[in-house]
Amino acid sequence: MGWDKELEELRHREALAEQMGGADKVARQHGRGKMDARARLAALCDEGSFREIGKIAGRGSYDEDGNLTGVLPAPFLFGKALVNGRPVVATADDFTIRGGAADAGISRKMVQAEKMAHELKLPIIRMIDGTGGGGSVKTLEQIGATYIPAVPGWSDVVKNLDTVPVVALALGPTAGLGAARTVASHYSVMVKGLSQIFAAGPAVVDGLGEAYKGSTDHQQAKEDLGGSEIHTRNGVVDDEVGSEAEAFARARHFLSFMPEHVGQLARRSLCTDPVHRREDALSALVPRDPKAVYSMRRCMEMVFDQGTVFEIGRMWGRACITALARLDGWPVMVLASDPSYLGGSWEAKTSEKVERFVKLADQFRLPIVHLVDNPGFMIGREAEMAGTIRYGVQAMNAIYKASVPLASVVLRRAYGIAGSAMSNAETYQYRYCWPSGDWGSLPIAGGLEVAYKSELEAADDPVAELEAIRARLDKVTSPFRSAERFNVEDIIDPRDTRPLLCEFASLAWRRLEAES
Q: Quick check: 454 pLDDT over 90?
């Protein structure tokens, strides 16, 4: 006798699981402009590659004779899948089942997904929608008692941060544990108007009598408290996108630069962009007026392999652009000053962003390219109140601790402690400087009147004397004077930047491959 009866029950239970929270709940999800969990998994993963694990887990209902009458599936789906042809653990919260609350299903599934990632060394992608495993107030009445909070399996979340690339996509209102799972990642995304993140939602905040009072419009209240406009500008989440499809595309793109786990090297891609491409526009990119700005992003487009620059965290810590890119197909991480924001001065948030990004590069063994135009740490009372020097030193420490190869290109300014954080000065300096370079312990223009106070006071014409001093110092501060003393390794034609950085990438990856 075969097992046809049991196989028939299996198929029946699988069909019940595919109904998720039921037709009405699924329709409500779609009515909010959101995809359901199963559609998200299909859209994220390579076609037909998702193999679900624990599909029939949930809460069964039975009649008085013990026959199955229905199943409320677990509000969390996971399995093995392919993304860009490479294996990953893909997960999705099912908001149609009690908003994804853990009391509606089996939290063990979430724990097992996290374990699967670090034990099998597979990247993990979390699609988070709801409390993401957290409980609900109704749980207390069902249990009959309260409890001291704990997060089962959080040690596995921590292990994943140390072991494999972790991507988190916030695809709806995420509170409590859902918010924590979003932040505990290497790369995170919110969808504008669709995603919100908060420690507790508007109703809870208002109920506790806090200062926040949300709008009578529930959706607007969530946006006001924790929308993407807040969290992609304060550094909680890396990027904001306009649709779920764009979120999936960015997750796939991020992972294309990453190895599958710590200890494995990232992969080189086919490059059709000539290594020796020289862009004439680079020679005039930096204006002669020291106060004038220019587009660092335009520089990046001309220097790195065409179409490969993948910026991360564009809306926060804006004085430094952080990106992934390729040079002759080799993946690299990029730090690039943005002179259009605070003149490129590092304030607290920028320093925090630089520290996080450098640590990510070191963890996953990606060489760093630093394009420098840094007039120093931000100054003034507001900067002091924000603790800029502490965050700045932590960023500098991260650069000095990093063990991956780093190349810096000084386009214009490099002043003070922040300017010295371009690279680890105790190691071999793989560094190039443009003829527009302007560096020192502090900007000359800001210290002339103080340094030459007595001469100016004694001069018959202080204005003319100041101009004469400035003319003399312009010659002393020429980058060629620095090169004479080998304080600068190489001054280059800006058009040679791409060929030389491609050379660096080739040598850097030669070293990384030898170390692996």
A: no
pLDDT value at position 155? 96
Task: State the chain's maximal CA–CA distance in angstroms.
Answer: 114
Distance CA 137, CA 123 (A): 33
Q: Where are the alpha helices (DSSP H) in 258-380?
A: 296-303, 348-363
As a whole number of angstroms, the distance between CA 368 and CA 56 comes to 46
Q: What is the pTM of this model?
A: 0.90
Burial class, 185, CB count within 10 angstroms (exposed 0-12 / middle 13-18 / buried 19+): buried
Cα 231 to the center of its chain, rounded Å: 12
Cα separation, 172 vs 174, whole angstroms: 6
Helix (H, G, I), strand (E, B) or coil at 413: strand
285: which DSSP letter?
S
CB 424 within 8 A of CB 400: yes
**How many CB atoms lie under 10 A from the CB of residue 362?**
18
* 181 close to 134: Cβ distance less than 8 angstroms: no
Domains (range + CATH), the chain: 4-257 (3.90.226.10), 280-515 (3.90.226.10)
Show the tokens assigned to 367. 């060489």
* 250-300: pLDDT as tens digits: 999 999 999 999 999 999 999 999 999 999 999 999 999 988 999 999 999
Condensed to tens digits (0 to 9), the pLDDT of residues 67-94 reads 888 888 999 999 999 999 999 999 999 9
Query: Cα angle at 45 between 182 and 326, to 5 degrees?
Result: 80
